[in-house]
């Protein structure tokens, strides 16, 4: 009986997490990326949020948009990598972070909180 209770409790927690999961923006996996960053604008690019940096999840960007209010957003995403520079005088190696060119996108969030259109701008 105790085992059955634990199994039912586990199933309730597991199923509720699946049902209440937030939507995410993800990208194709890339094992050369060290970090990703995203920022959004709700006024067509006049003002922007601060960059939100994150470590790759399964080598891909994973940006939570569950807390966004309904509306249309212009977004910008970048991938970051590391260059290793070697000092010719003493051989010391320094890692330098660099960011890719921005990938712009349009995101529309309905009142249900689910994104409806994600359009990559060229």
How is this structure best described in words?
The protein has 122 residues and is mainly beta. The protein has one domain (23-120). Helix content is 15%, strand content 43%. It has 1 helix and 8 strands, in the order H-E-E-E-E-E-E-E-E. The strands form 2 sheets. Strands 2, 3, 5, 6, 7 and 8 form a 6-stranded antiparallel beta sheet that branches. The protein has a two-stranded antiparallel ribbon with strand order 1-4. The longest helix is centred in the first third of the chain and has 18 residues, at 2-19. Mean pLDDT is 79; it is low at 16-20.
Produce a short descriptive summary.
By secondary structure, the protein is mainly beta. It has one helix at 2-19, and strands at residues 24-26, 35-41, 52-54, 62-64, 71-86, 93-99, 103-109, 115-120.
What's the structural blueprint in terms of helices and strands?
Elements: H1 2-19, E1 24-26, E2 35-41, E3 52-54, E4 62-64, E5 71-86, E6 93-99, E7 103-109, E8 115-120
Antiparallel strand pairs: 1-4, 2-3, 2-5, 5-6, 5-7, 7-8
State the share of residues found in helices, binned by percent: 10-25%
The shape is elongated
Largest sheet: 6 strands, antiparallel
Spatial separation of the terminal alpha carbons: 59 Å
Number of helices: 1
Give helix and strand order, one letter per element, not per position.
Answer: HEEEEEEEE
Indicate how many domains the architecture comprises.
1
Q: What is the averaged pLDDT score? A: 79
Total strand count, please? Answer: 8
Overall structural class, as computed from helix and strand content, comes to: mainly beta
Strand residues, percent:
35-45%
Uncertain segments are 16-20
CA-based gyration radius: 20 Å
